[in-house]
UniProtKB/TrEMBL annotation:
Similarity section: Belongs to the ThiD family.
A single Gene Ontology CC term: cytosol
Keywords noted in UniProt: ATP-binding, Kinase, Nucleotide-binding, Thiamine biosynthesis, Transferase
Claim: Nucleotide-binding is one of the keywords in the record: yes
GO MF annotation list: ATP binding; hydroxymethylpyrimidine kinase activity; phosphomethylpyrimidine kinase activity
Source species of the chain: Thermanaeromonas toyohensis ToBE
Metal-binding as UniProt keyword: no
Protein name stated in the entry: Hydroxymethylpyrimidine/phosphomethylpyrimidine kinase
Enzyme class of the recorded protein, top EC level: transferase
Transmembrane spans: none
GO biological process annotation, one example: thiamine biosynthetic process
Domain Pyridoxamine kinase/Phosphomethylpyrimidine kinase: 11-254
Length: 266
């Protein structure tokens, strides 16, 4: 059985964070484990509060999971603060994790900070060099590089700059760019690959970023290469968005089940 670990925050609303990750792992038939960095009081409309887990207890959870169950791939999401980022980097190095997907979650869709700017440098310096894939959205890519990203050309430039901090692959997600297609750029230090799908005009989009990175992680755990995992994760997300539901009064949720059994066998 393939195993994937998510190191992330809890979304009480069930749409993003570690709940999205575990649902995605299950739908792709990968055994999921979770290390919680922060508990958010959150729903489809926003983040009402948060309670960060002390870094030493994040470390203890990591020892429990990695010292016993292990993981074929690991994903990080909301890491809450600089101390947790640093602790996670130390532990992942200690356990020799090499299929690591870092989703640099800075801000929730509602605008609430999930990782303060004081921690961004630590993320770049300590976690990015360990990553196989880093998956910033446009805002995160802008915050990391200081570039203003208005086009696919700018996305490529941002990907190249982020690659210099040490990850083997960078995916810059273009979900927030205008246009008829949703385009993501993958850069491996040499080649640029472009992944495109028709832009869906729907509002059931809570947790798209988490789900995309979780699907990449699950597919890497199963042995797919990075470009294949990114392409298939995008298709997973497209189907989950189409099947999404208007849960709550804000951004609705994705639907993780039914369609995938036909194309993802054990
Ligand atoms: N309207 C859309 N139609 C189709 N695909 C989309 C749409 N919006 C985003 N995507 C795709 O979803 C994935 C996540 O991209 P996005 O830029 O939304 O990430 P994110 O901003 O991290 O997510 P979140 O908004 O949940 O934080 C990417 O593959 C992107 O291309
Ligand atoms: C806990 C958590 N992680 C990540 C996101 C990003 O969407 C969110 N809204 N909440």
């Amino acid at each position: 059985m393939y195993k994937a670990l998510t190191i992330a925050g809890s979304d009480s609303g069930g749409g993003a964070g570690l709940q999205a990750d575990l649902k995605t792992f299950a739908a792709l038939k990968v055994y999921g484990t979770s290390v919680i960095t922060s508990v958010t009081a959150q729903n489809t409309r926003g983040v009402q509060g948060r309670y960060d887990i002390p870094a030493h207890f994040v470390a203890q959870q990591l020892d429990s999971v990695l010292g016993d169950i292990g993981a074929d791939a690991v994903k990080t999401g909301m890491l809450a603060n600089a101390e947790i980022v640093s602790t996670v980097a130390t532990k992942l190095k200690e356990y020799g994790i090499n299929r690591l997907v870092v989703d640099p979650v800075f801000v929730a869709k509602s605008g609430h900070f999930l990782l303060g700017p004081d921690a961004w440098e630590v993320l770049k310096e300590e976690l990015f060099p360990l990553a196989l894939v880093v998956t910033p959205n446009l805002d995160e890519a802008e915050a990391l590089t200081g570039l203003s990203i208005q086009s696919e050309k700018d996305m490529v430039e941002a990907a190249q700059r982020i690659w210099d901090w040490g990850p083997k692959f960078v995916v810059v997600k273009g979900g927030h760019l205008a246009g008829e297609e949703a385009v993501d750029i993958l850069f491996d230090g040499k080649e640029v690959l472009r992944f495109s799908s028709p832009r869906l005009l729907i509002s059931n989009t809570h947790g798209t970023g988490c789900t995309f990175a979780a699907a990449i992680t699950a597919l890497l755990a199963k042995g797919w290469g990075v470009p294949e995992a990114v392409g298939r994760a995008k298709e997973y997300l497209r189907q989950a968005m189409i099947a999404g539901r208007p849960v709550g009064k804000g951004y609705g949720c994705l639907h993780h089940l039914a369609p995938y059994y036909s194309w993802e066998d054990d």
